[in-house]
Amino acid sequence: MTATHTSRAANRARAGAHGRRPAKSRQRPNWLGGLVSWLWLAVVIIPIYWIVITSLKTQANYYATNPFAPPPDPTLDNYRLVLEMDFPLYFLNSLLVAIGTVIPSVLFSFMAAYAIVRSGGASRFLRGVNSLFLMGLAIPLQATVIPIYLMIIKLHLYDSLTGLVLPSVAFAIPLSVLVLANFIRDVPKELFESMRLDGATEWKTLWGLAFPLTRPAVVTVSIYNALQVWNGFLLPLILTQSPDKRTLPLALAAFQGGPYGVNVPAVLASVVLTILPMLVLYTVGRRQLLSGLTAGFGK
Amino acid sequence: MAAISAKRTPSAAAPGASGGGVLPWLAMPALVAFVAFALIPLIGVLLLSFTSWDTLGEIKLTGFESWRSVLTDPGLPHALWVTFLIMLFSWAFQTPASLLIGVFLAGHQRYRELLAVLYFIPLLLSSAAIAITFKALLDPNFGLGAGLGLDFLSQDWLGEPGLAFGVVIFVVSWQYIPFHSLLYQGGVRQIPRSLYEAAELDGAGRIRMFFSITLPQLKYTIITSSTLMVVGSLTFFDLIFVLTEGGPGDATRALALDMYKRGFQANLMGAACVIGVILVLVGLALALLLRRLGGRDPQASQLEGA
Predict the structure, then answer these.
(1) All domains of chain A, ordered by start, with CATH?
(2) What string of DSSP letters covers A146-164?
(3) What residues make up the domain containing B292?
(4) Which residues of A touch B242 (CB under 8 A)?
């Protein structure tokens, strides 16, 4: 099977997955799959449920009540406590790093993916670029943090948000290019051809045709990269030092090890606050995220 | 395959060729960013492994000294062994579970869509948040076991080497089984229904169909998913760092954590870079091995089709 074939099939699957209901044949139900799925769903949901209810308990109730019983008198005090501390600052830091990473990485990756697809392997240079990015997928880039630490110090960017953004952009590029290229490949060739006959430049075709037509992929890649950066831990850990430059995951870890560490309900309230923005993003882009990841990885 | 790509390549290339030298320029920003903060550090990690640097003083060229000290340190085989075990057990637990769940989720019933939505939640959480949650849940005095009065749950989960290792595998699975299940769900939905219809006419049962249609058809999804799991398990850092800090003792001190501790806690950057180089080599070797096992290079075919 060629890539063309699979990507077309993926396209069909994307288009049809939700609309088409194939005639279900008489079959014995999949008991084992069902059992494992429901069981694992419980394993996934129970800790989440516990996080939410515990974050609404007072500290006294946390020690006194059954851990799975909902709080007798739910309170938002933990949330207030967390918000009165430096949480909003960490939140802002994470937000700035995420935006600063996602926008350039997605735009750069889109341009590169467009070039790689449109050159169709004719350009030796672009073939090399593609291979380089593919190699980037196979290498655990976290192994390179020590030279990155050194470079960021030499650039006088240590303990700054810019210092976090630069390597994050680089780390995001290989996967973004792969997924975006898979989608740009699905744009019918005739459309590019008619743009060309109209005298449009590559630059205009890129933003006027390819970008709008592959918006679901752009959304997917943006959300995925935002998640990675939002939840990233290693880079902030080694590239920052001052408490006021902390991003959320780092703040959570410090919070838990710090003087409030014994206040489990407050720690869990901050966990809930941390995932709220990602929950919103996920709700907005869920369908595209799922199909995009499947098409990007599943070949 | 050859025929199609041969026909495709020139026709796809024609418009690009007319764009002249513009296309390579479009790839420049991404290339520059990647080279500056991924490729150069990759070369840097190799170069720095031949130096010694304590993060404050100067970087001194010391030849193979760091290599000698790391390679003769019994900590290295231990870290490699821990990494291998984490890789093996997390793969062996996650793959069958994700496959079963993915096949089940691929059904088109409405409630399975809902299941897929709920399954995604762990992917939104940071490893740090997950580690903090499980640390609190597993606390022998105030956690789940104590709260429910169940003695078998109130063990010193993170204090016993064997138990702590098991907890790491469990938490990794908690975090990633949903993702791999969704990959398999996508893979299963791409299998042509006609294959199953034909098998059904031949009177094949569900189990038979799973082994002779679903599994072989999912070959590339299995390879992709396994590659992500195996290469990904090299870099489990945040989770172990927050959950156990490599402990108790060094029971969960995997390579990535070993690198961090040597570099940023013991201030032996040269030695830490040796571990970094080993991580890169192991990652590349595993990716190549898995590709070889697949009997096809899924990425190369994407290149051809480009």
Answers:
(1) 33-75 (no CATH), 86-297 (1.10.3720.10)
(2) HHHHHHHHHTT-TTSHHHH
(3) 45-305
(4) 233, 253, 256
Most confident range, picked from A53-57, A102-106, B278-282: A102-106
Query: Is A17 in Cβ contact with B287 (below 8 Å)?
Result: no
CB contact under 8 A, A238 and B264: yes
Query: Distance, in angstroms, between B265 CA and closest chain A CA?
Result: 11
Q: Does the beta-carbon distance from A297 to B8 stay under 8 Å?
A: no
Q: Indicate whether B153 belongs to any domain.
A: yes
Q: Is residue B38 part of a domain?
A: no
Q: Which residues of chain B have pLDDT under 70?
A: 1-20, 146-147, 149, 294-306
Which residues of chain B neighbour A189 with C-beta distances below 8 Å? 11-12, 15
The verdict on A19 touching B (C-beta cutoff 8 Å) is no
Domain count for chain B: 1
B220 CB within 8 Å of a chain A CB: yes
Residue B281's nearest CA partner among B38, B45, B53 is B45
Per the CB < 8 Å rule, is B44 touching A252?
Answer: no
pLDDT of residue A156 exceeding 90: yes
Nearest to A88 by CA among A276, A248, A263, A260: A248
Put simply, whether A197 touches B (Cβ < 8 Å) is no
Peptide bond into B122 cis (omega under 30): no
Residues of B in contact with A150 (CB under 8 A): 44, 48, 53, 59, 269
Q: Classify B91 in phi/psi space as left (phi over 0), alpha (psi -120 to 50) or beta.
A: alpha
Residue A11, pLDDT score: 44
The first and second tokens of residue A131, run together, are 């291979």
Reported as type and span, the H/E element at residue A32 is: helix A31-55
Contacts of A279 in chain B (CB under 8 A): 124
Which CATH number fits the domain that encloses residue B73? 1.10.3720.10
Q: Which residue has the higher pLDDT, A287 or B300?
A: A287
Interatomic CA distance for residues B40 and A247, integer angstroms: 26
CA distances from B206 to A22, A32, A102 (A): 17, 11, 44
Q: How many CA atoms lie within 13 A of B265 on its CB side?
A: 9
Q: Is residue B10 part of a domain?
A: no
Distance of CA B118 to the CA centre of its chain: 22
Residues 6+ apart with CB under 8 A from A215: none
Considering CB atoms only, which of A21, A44, A173 is closest to B122? A44
Whether B37 maps to a domain, the answer reads: no
